[in-house]
Amino acid sequence: MKSQQAVLDPTHFMFDFAEPDIDMENHPMALLLEEFEDSYMKTPVMGDIRQGVIVDKRSGEWLVDIGFKSEGVVSGKDLERLGDEFDNLAIGDEVPVYVMREDRDGNLMLSISKAKAEEDWILAEKLLENQDTDSGMISGYNRGGVIIKIGQVRGFVPASQLSSESQSLQRTDIDPEERWSKLVGTELRYKVIDLDRRRNRLILSERLAMREWRQAQKEKLLESLKEGGMAEGVVSSLADFGAFVNLGGADGLIHLSELSWGRVNHPSEVIQIGQKVKVQVLSVDLERKRIGLSLRRMQPEPWETVAEKYAVGQVVKGVITKMVNFGAFARLEDDAVEGLIHISELSDRRITHPREVVSEGDEFDLRIIRIDIDRRRMGLSLKQALPEPESNEFDWEIVPLDENPAANEDENVLVAEMAVPEFA
Predict the structure, then answer these.
(1) What integer best gives the mean pLDDT of the chain?
(2) Cβ neighbours of residue 420 under 8 Å, at least 6 residues apart?
(3) Could you report the per-residue pLDDT of 108-165, keeping only the tens digit for each?
(4) Are the CB atoms for 62 and 56 separated by under 8 Å?
(5) What CATH architecture applies to the domain 302-385?
């Protein structure tokens, strides 16, 4: 007789966890797992950056709660590195902290300065990645350039990366180590051009930042300027053909012919570098990004007042400005009005070229002989403004011999003496 073996039903050992009467959220195993995960996540690891709460400010150290079993300690030395940036913080305020280590007594050592430095490095990396510009205060310098602090990180701007405006402020009359001292405390725009956290290297450029800033300013300016409108600026440079005016990030050109209503040989005769001027906008070329300006049109057109100031027959002061074969041009004193002295009105004698009588820059009394306001022309005469010649009429009379000293030598010598002409 064969023995019978028990056949086990495998479903006997299966549990149905889907039964509606079991609460999985409050199940002991689930609660234990959650507690383990929370404990694991809250355990600080060296290099972590956490948000903490100041719970005590002792002499030389702060206690900060980061949700661990005990408060962490921020040393006095670390607080000194922060300067006065966190002086206004009080108990209960939140601060970022960097987890450093546990000391021999089991105290968790934290650093606010390292946490801030980490944040600042991340900011610098974003500036480099996005090629954005930022600005900061120059806090120091050395022979090779200046230093800008981006929070707790020191960035270096080499002299070659300073803008021309900043380089113009360097001092050449002192030790080369001190030549950038004048820049300390000034605001400076910069771009991050090189970054190496491992070597603690952060290189900045003001020159590139200013180039982009000017370009952006120029775009805004070109969009805002209207032809015929008025603008204010500072003369930035002079050239033989005109003057450039900085309108706030972009330069416009005043052509030589638009500097004055009068004749101008060089812009320096009218304006100087650094001078503030009000100008009229003549043209805005968005495609070529050029701005045409006028200085003279901010003043009344001189011919508008000629009829009130001058009349035919009037004698005026004039300066010779130009000579041509048929005459010479003269600018009236303290005015931009020019008139022509025809070659026939330069002298009573016959001449072949004005240079025989006048030279550029000479000043004369001139008589106005013609005014044509509609055609903007004035005729002048030099010869008609000359003083009247003295009369050539003479009265002669015999001088008695006894009154003539020469009679002792020759009794027959008669001396004629010119008398003052008598007029009825």
Answers:
(1) 81
(2) 395
(3) 889 888 888 888 999 999 999 999 999 999 999 998 999 999 888 999 999 999 998 8
(4) yes
(5) Beta Barrel (2.40)
Query: What Rg, from alpha-carbon coordinates, does the chain have?
Result: 47
**DSSP conformational letter for 16:** -
How many Å apart are CA 209 and CA 192, to the nearest integer?
Answer: 9
Strands 145-150 and 153-158: antiparallel
Residue 96 near residue 119 (C-beta atoms within 8 A): yes
Contact 159, 167 (CB under 8 A): yes
pLDDT in tens, 263-293: 788 999 999 999 999 999 999 988 888 899 9
DSSP summary character for residue 107: P
Q: Which CATH class is domain 131-211?
A: mainly beta
Token duo for residue 221: 């300016």
Exposed/middle/buried for 72, CB within 10 Å: 0-12, 13-18, 19+? buried
Task: Specify burial of residue 180 (Cβ count, 10 A radius: 0-12, 13-18, 19+).
Answer: buried
3-class DSSP state of 359: coil
Provide the β-strand partners of residue 51. Answer: 96
Query: Closest by alpha carbon to 373, among 333, 331, 337, 343?
Result: 337
Query: What's the CATH class of domain 227-298?
Result: mainly beta
Structure tokens at 130: 């996005």
Residue 67 carries which DSSP code? S
CA atoms within 13 A on the CB side of 422: 4
pTM, whole model, 2 decimals?
0.52
Q: Is the pLDDT of residue 15 over 60?
A: no
Burial class (CB in 10 A: 0-12, 13-18, 19+), 151: middle
Sign of the alpha-carbon torsion through 390, 396, 397, 401: positive
Compute CA distances 420 → 229, 393, 399, 424, whole Å: 69, 9, 15, 13
Tokens 């001139």 locate to 366
Closest CA to 64 of 108, 104, 101: 108
Q: Where in the chain is the domain with CATH 2.40.50.140?
A: 49-116, 131-211, 227-298, 302-385
Can you list the alpha helix ranges (DSSP code H) found in 190-256?
Answer: 206-224
Tens digits of residue pLDDT in 19-69:
555 555 565 655 555 544 444 446 778 778 888 898 888 888 889 898 887
Distance separating alpha carbons of residues 101 and 409, to the nearest angstrom: 133
Give the architecture-level CATH label for domain 49-116: Beta Barrel (2.40)
